[in-house]
Amino acid sequence: MRQNYTLQRNLILIVIYVWLFSFTTDCHAIEAPGYIITLQHDTLSGSVQLSRFDQLTGGLVLNGIEQESFYSRVVFKGKNDKQFNVYFPELILGFGFNHKLVNYFFQRFTVEHNSILENETQQYRFLCMLYKGSLELYKNETFIDNPHAAATHERYLNFSDYFLF
């Protein structure tokens, strides 16, 4: 009787370990087909790396993708490249990718800021295209650390700006 109990317990532990292992391998980054546009206006095809974790809070994104980091950088691997590289707005003009039948496009813009430091008044940012027709609508999201986080229970504040061109 004691031997059956030990065998059942070991079998249950094996099933739990296999389940946990399969879950952790599914939590790695996603590769989506995409492209970057170089400063010379060349389009390079490859893969864009999408994170399953929120870059601000570290939490697992269960539905959708983490988009906050795309306003300041993209992780891209060309078709013939062996590893991913990080591209900032100073290095490329834009990028795009497709994930779950949704096309995402980010274009580089110069965003003006009010700052007492002159070298911080302008910044390159990737803005997300929301609409393209006779006019184009772009979105810029900025996340800042909330100084009143203990009182409001919100660690980061989100500010969204919309630009019409």
Give the tags.
single chain, 165 residues, 9 strands
Q: Would you give an account of this structure?
A:
The chain is of the alpha+beta class and 165 residues long. Helices cover 17% and strands 45% of the residues. It has a nine-stranded antiparallel sheet with strand order 4-3-2-1-5-6-7-8-9, with no helix packed on it. The radius of gyration is 22 Å and the shape is elongated.
What would the principal axes of the Cα set say about the shape?
Answer: elongated
Number of helices: 2
Biggest pleated sheet: 9 strands, antiparallel
Following the backbone from N to C, one meets helices and strands in this order, namely: HEEEEEEEEHE
- Unreliable stretches (pLDDT < 50, length at least 5) are none
Secondary structure category: alpha+beta
- Total DSSP E strands: 9
